[in-house]
Amino acid sequence: MSELSGPMYHNNMSDAEFCALNAILLFDPRADGLSEHGIQVVAEARKRTYDHWFSFYNVLGVQDIGERVGNTMLLIPALKMIVQTTQENFRLIQVFDLFHYDKIIDELMHLVS
Known about the structure:
By secondary structure, the chain is mostly helical. The protein contains six helices and no strands.
């Protein structure tokens, strides 16, 4: 978690930047199971997210917009690692039946086929 929180703190990352990062991750046109139309819709949503993100910085008068966005995007590998670790932890909970939980967590964590 420090791989994510440390750079966020040092870059003075705002809530808006964190939301933009999550939107970029959410709108992934390479996600499994998307139709051609779905890929196009998601790619357009991602582009709009970037456009709004840059506009947000323009309104704030940020001078180094490309650097700010780039530094935020550099957090993606750390964020993906945290997600993978969380999925692995839930897999262990499932395999060893460590505690009972609602099965919707399995669906959220993509543990059910």
